[in-house]
Amino acid sequence: MIKLYIKNVLILYCFIIFFVVMINFSNVFASQNDGYKNFDSLLSVIKMQPQNILINDKQTPIFSEYLTSNLVFINRGQDLVADKGLLSAVSSVGKNSMFGTSYFGSFSLETSKYKVGSGLDVNGVVLISGLAQKVKMLTAGAFFEYSNGNYNDILNSLESFPAVKGSGDKECVGGGLLCRLDFFDKFYLDFSGRKGLLKSNFYSLDLTDLYGKPAYCDCDLQYFSSHAGLGCMLAFSKQFGMDIFSKCFFTHQDGKENVTLYSGEILNFSELNSQRLLCGLRISKQTNSIFSFYGGVSAEYEFLGDVKATFINKAITAGSFKGYTETIEFGVLGKSKSCSAELSMHSYLGIREGFSGTFKISFALFNYLERFAGYSLEKFENEKVGRFNKVFSFSKKECFLKVLGIIKDLNGKVTHKSFKKGYIAAFEFSKNFQGFCLDSTEVCIYIQDLENVNVEVVSNNSLLADALSKELFQMLNKDKKEQKGGGKVWQKL
Description:
The protein is α+β, with helices and mostly antiparallel strands.
């Protein structure tokens, strides 16, 4: 009996030694051959059952929150395109709208928390860069998009199960089109559409198999999104203006089947959609010819945002980020002769919490072919409403030089002029006539020598033509009086 007992103990001891050796062998084998990444692979070779990760139904929502973070990350790029990206494109063509194509770019750095589970943090940077072109009142452009970031998530399970943490990296590469149409002097419509590829992964040290291997998976997902917006720009004075806007967003992310974790579990999820409505306003103040400051508030509501997924053929508790988010923003805009730059900060409250910072830059790439071909006055000659004129008793040459000086005093930029033909074309009057126009709005001032000199201000923006003509005529009258009194002498510019 004793001998039989000793024999059984020795057999059990040998079995334990063999099991330990096999575990160590599996670790060495995995480091030398990528085909066997863990001990489960080796066990499958010798016809043993693979070991799954230790997880229960209360912890599986960590996967739906991973999928939610993907959609949230895609939406961050859409927000940049529809806001600062469009404004950067419009600003770039405003630098020199007659010379054709302009370059624009925007960069955003942000960190945000979403009230999904116990807290979903999404961090990253988004960069868009492209070319824009202005045709009359329409600005259109094409852009390239790149974003890179990560997410961290924590799920406090119910009952006695421990909390689960998940994290991962994300990268988006894509491109799209954007456009903005200005009409009726104050209103505008804008639109954007983009398509790209999202690469993301999931990693959790709290979900492991019996041998301590953490849960891990990665997947590539295609997405597309679009937005449409309507806005109105109001002017309270030359320094104060207000922009009231409303935008509707839609984002689609493809679903995917058979996303396999390293330990063999299968994750399936259907396509994800997001539909948001954003309403807000911005108030801006021009402090000098270079800098302006603005502040704004907005409210956003997410209508969709539901995640439908299964893990090992069992439905996961749906994750969602439906609800309201309020945003407060402050920014400063600086303009020079050749470019413009803007820095803004945003703070979020509601379903989304946290902050983001955005930097945008724009400048023109001159089209010398169009420049060489000459400048057309046809759009001014056909204008019926935005025309205002007055007769002065200057000589044509004297009046021509005075008008050039006044344009300079009003911070306008002369693009074309011809003394022989009697016209001066200029733009960028928004600094002195904020709210009446954009930087790109053009004005032509005709100076014709009849019995006296007839000065006529023409613009397709009748509000700007009216305001500028009053200012110009008043300054010319003032110069005439000073000239009679000997108080002011004009020199050739």
